[in-house]
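REQUEST
  id: r-88c1
  op: predict_structure
  target: DEP domain-containing protein
  payload:
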Amino acid sequence: MEVINGVLLKPFGEEKFGINATKSNGVVDKEIIQRRYGNENLSNPVHFYPSSDSNVNQDDPAGDTSKPEDGFCEIEMEEEKLQDSKTDILDSDDTAERISPTETHMKKGESNDIIAVTPKINGYIQTIQPDFHLPKPEAPPGLSSSSPYQYENGDVVARSKSLSDSLAAVDMPSIGKFFKDRSNSLSATISKRLSSLKFDDGDDDYMNHKANSVDSGVTEFNISGLKVVVMLKKNDGEEQIKGRVSFFSRSNCRDCTAVRSFFRERGLKFVEINIDVYRQREKELIERTGSSQVPQIFFNDKLFGGLVALNSLRNSGGFEERLKEMLGKKCSGDAPAPPVYGFDDHEEESTDEMVGTVKVLRQRLPIQDRLMKMKIVKNCFAGREMVEVLIHHFDCGRKKAVEIGKQLARKHFIHHVFGENDFEDGNHYYRFLEHEPFVPKCYNFRGSTNDSEPKPAVVVGQTLHKIMSAILESYASDDRLHVDYAGISKSEEFRRYVNLVQDLHRVDLLKLSQDEKLAFFLNLHNAMVIHAVIRVGCPEGPIDRRSFSSNFQYIVGGSSYSLNTITNGILRSNRRSPYSVVKPFGTGDKRLEVVLPKVNPLIHFGLCNGTRSSPTVRFFTSQGIESELRCAAREFFQRNGMEVDLEKRTVHLTRIIKWFSIDFGQEKEILRCIINYLDATKAGLLTHLLGDGGPVNIVYQDYDWSINS
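RESPONSE
  id: r-88c1
  status: 200
  body:
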């Protein structure tokens, strides 16, 4: 290698190392620099300044923002300071010597190989930067690098300076600045890739990827380990619907379900007005159409018709054209208005005739804590005290006052503190419903009890059934396996349900028939599960599930009802829950009067607890409760409640049957009963196993406690 006219001629093989030399002015240090191979003790930091045309790894940490000229790397050197007190430290001006501006320094190793080429700039020695493909030099131990780096886009990112030598000898980067700079760099890189995304047209993989992107409207690429998905905008030429599609419906209407499914398949946004939920909108429907039949579809303010008109137009192929024609204009004020959140229908609610008496008693009775049967009873009053107040205020006899007290007890305004009697004169203690210890824990209590005239339990149950059915139709999948709890929590239907359950405070459950009671509590249980998941979440696991079922309560008919007491106390005739030794209702409990006399094992296929392995959520009518329960059992077993392995002679059953085996009977009896609810294939396999006289093994499936959302 030699220098001719200031140009360094390199032999073959050195070109790949990026070694070059140019003319420059500068001063050479006394100590000749040996880059990366030197044995000197370096005390000053090393600064690397990549050239503008070099590619630098974007993952490099940040540093200072200063930048030298010509893209060279500057290495500041200092002679090793001697610790000997007899040795004088040379001044920095004495450690350097000036050389000719036209000279070029080169350091040769023992084998005459050139190690570094150092042109001079501004009178000081400079070191040529190595080619960017080579590994970057590492600082010696104890030396912290604070060199700035420059990315391809020109942004300079500074590396945080290390602590002083007295504190630490390692690099301690500024974490906050580091992440901030990396975030800015990543954002800039993504923007750059989005704006200048280029591929080789001859690449078959790219052409396939491009074709798929055009078809799906999605472009995907990776940046620094991140997967970026870009949704392409629709063509401007596509016509957009400016109007509004509305239709009136009812809960559990097959034609309404067909219309809803049709609009969802087409991706059309629509407004549904369920007149079972918004009852006052039925008058509007009659005024617009002349009848109360549903469904009735409106395109803006124009009546389109019902399901027959929709099917006719769809079969003729003119639906899209008619849709564009009728919805090409913006919706006018004459179209059916969407339901508004937070506004209830105005209904006349009659005040209970006993409310005036209750208000007087609340003000004049000495309500206080008392000692009774070695227990402190809070917020109570004596029966004789209430009789005295009634006699003085209403100017009636003692017998009439006692009769008024019994009426208040039957309407659940007051209760005996231990549930021993309705009302009697004397030293018996009573308390108002709002003072019961369980009331603040109930999720349908909102600061005060409902003093309105109690509605019949049948009416409340029917309204609950309609509202919850409307919620499922709007916020659950068609197969009811998945429920959108977040969407339900924000809906107007759910807000109305929360208001409705306050009517349960003093409802009279004793007036319900057996079928009405069965449907009422099945529906109440499933509605409470949805409410509980929204309010407290759905625990995953049998241990947390026990508290979930016991702690979420409603006030119903003056008593507290949890999910556990409804299932095991009412529907299962006060039987112990699985792995429990205590019955839900003890002796003397008033709720025993509501318990169903006989257990129907099919209730277990109508109760949904919000998990994936439970039966699907549904709501029942009192008129068809038996057939609806059989349908629920058939759907459950045909889905995943039972599997038959003919080779191993094994039947895989849901774990629900094991937990409540006392309700189903012996295992072979269970299998014979299940045949009636299986499809033809499973029924044939199970019949073959039971009929050949051989042993049949029963294995219970694992239960999935995850939420069905």
